[in-house]
Amino acid sequence: MSTLPAKQPPVNLETKPFWDATTEGKFLLKRCVACGFVIWYPRGLCPDCGADGAEWFEASGRGTVYTYTVIRRGQGRWRDAAPYALAYVELEEGPRVMTNIVDCDPDALSIGQTVEVTFDDTGEGAALYRFRPC
Q1: Which of 25, 65, 93, 131 has its CA 20 to 30 A from that of 103?
Q2: For 9-39, what is each residue's pLDDT tens digit?
Q3: Which structural domain range is residue 127 located in?
Q4: Could you list the pLDDT tens digit for every one of the 134 residues in the chain?
Q5: Would 7 be classed as within a structural domain?
Q6: Does a structural domain hold residue 94?
C-alpha cells in the first residue's frame, strides 16, 4: 500500500463490479460484444460503435507510462504526500487510465516505462488502482 491518500471512489450500479473486483486484487475492463472495443471507464454503451452491451474481463494489469507529471506541492489531504506522480498509463489492452505511480522515486520515472497495477485499500469497501514500476 502506498502512502498516498485513498478515498472511497463513487460507486454506482454500472461500476460496482469493477470496484468490487479491486478488493480482490483484480483489474477488470469491459469489452464491447459487437465490435470488440475495450472500454474505459466502465459503461453500458460502447463509445466506439454505440452498441448496447459489454462484458467484463480481467485485464493483465500491465501497461506503460504514456505521460506523467510530478506534483511537488500538494493541497488539502494531499499536502503531505508531495512529491508524487500523476500519470496516464496505456494498458496492454489499449485504453489509457489516469492514475498515480507509486513505490518509486517520482524523479526516476520515464515515458514508456513498464508498470503494473497495485491496489490501495480505502477501508470503505473498494480499493484504488495505482501503478508501480515493474
Answers
A1: 93
A2: 999 999 999 999 999 999 999 999 999 999 9
A3: 16-133
A4: 677 888 889 999 999 999 999 999 999 999 999 999 999 999 989 999 999 999 999 999 999 999 999 999 988 888 899 999 999 999 999 999 999 999 999 999 999 999 999 999 988 889 999 999 99
A5: no
A6: yes
Distance of CA 37 to the CA centre of its chain: 18
| Rounded CA separation 37/81 (Å) | 36
User: What is the residue whose three cell numbers read 471512489?
Assistant: 9
Reported residue count of the chain is: 134
CB contact at 8 A, 72 and 82: yes
Element (H, E) at 99: strand 96-101
Tell me if residue 76 falls in helix, strand or coil.
helix
User: All 3 cell numbers of residue 120?
Assistant: 490501495
Structural domains counted in the chain: 1
pLDDT tens sequence across 33-47: 999 999 999 998 999
Distance of CA 1 to CAs 33, 59, 96, Å? 35, 20, 22
Residue 33 lies inside a defined structural domain of this protein:
yes
Give the H/E segment covering residue 91. Answer: strand 84-91
